[in-house]
Specification:
heterodimer, A: alpha/beta, Udp-n-acetylmuramoylalanyl-d-glutamate--2,6- Diaminopimelate Ligase, Chain: A, domain 1, five-stranded mixed beta sheet, 5 helices, 40% helix, B: 308 residues, alpha+beta, CBS-domain, Heat Shock Protein 90, five-stranded antiparallel beta sheet, three-stranded mixed beta sheet
Amino acid sequence: MRISELAPLLGLEVAQGEYSDRALSSGYASDLLSDVMANAKADGVLVTVQAHKNAIAVASLVGLAAIIVCNSRPMPEDMLEAAKAEGVALFRSAQSAFEISGRLWAALHRP
Amino acid sequence: MYMMSSLPISPDSGSQAVLEILYRLKVRDVMSSPVITAEPGDAMREVQYRMRDNDITGVPIVEGGRLVGLVSMGLVIEALDAGRIGQKAGELMTRTVISLEDDMPLSFATTYFNRYKYRRFPVLDRDGSLVGIVCASDIIRALLVAMNKEVERLEEKLAVAAPAAEAVPDGQIRLSFQVSRFDFEHAGTASAEFKKALKGLGIEAGIVRRAAIASYELELNEVIHSEGGAISLAAGDGRIEIVAEDRGPGIPNVESAMTEGFSTANEWIRSLGFGAGMGLPNTRRVSDDFEIDSGPGRGTRVRVAIRY
């Protein structure tokens, strides 16, 4: 599954769409940035409610491909700018992290 | 257009000295206290009198010590226009009030003024009780006092010459960054530069990731817990060394701090996704060598090494 397939599949709003499209390695759900640092995989997608610039810094350091912000959390302008500068795809969903993770897991594990 | 409520200063721009002030001062250092308030049952007329008698333009509405709304001068004028000045404040007040916490650094207050176009922000303590109010002039006054002191200090320091930069041989890296307390705007900058430099040396991705984790955790520890410090990277000859050294206050119990899940971070830091008590344990896990030296009343120095 590729980054560009996330939005149509999960009904996500594209908040920052400037990225180089590539295959997703995995998914990770967490709101603790240290936990994301330690356990998220490169080219993975992060499911979180942390809508601020520091989430982008962590994504960039770990090499995450995309972030899905859940529960319609508003994203500040500086977060969008940071994501654009780092080429991290940023999506927003009205659904909870539980719902998005469930559907994402199914999509990533589809044979 | 010139906005009365915006402040021409933000953590995204400005000199290092001014940024230091924005992170060092807390909202409680600049807020006005006690606050002139009214209750939801008070008439708008009464609120108008309180504004006039105290020369203020906004009155928080409080019920049992809890902030429930706010009446601004604009709302009073609207009430006068509409013949509603006899109505209760609780019926006409704004209910969606953006508030600050007394423990937040001043940078949060300046960001709020520029992000939300309100002229004042009520201040709550960690229990949610109203303890003060901040308007732009409070911030300007506090900044002028602090900046004046800082300029004096810098003038004294000008005489001291900076040390010359050291030449670095090919295939090696020497980088160093200053880290400021509560500077969440730039948190991670040093680690991003370290990562870029290590990649530039052609070091394998898995090793670079371990170094990035160690430096990010140490950098964030300085932002969250220290009074400021520095983080440096040295790489070459198969060895990456990261040293984080701060100016205090020191860790009272290093063994606790090394325990996963132990954290002394406060509520608003946790709300940003930090303070999970994983920083130092994560750092040790990704390092080949790990040394920490700290104690109350002195700084903390962490030195880690990763071989490649």
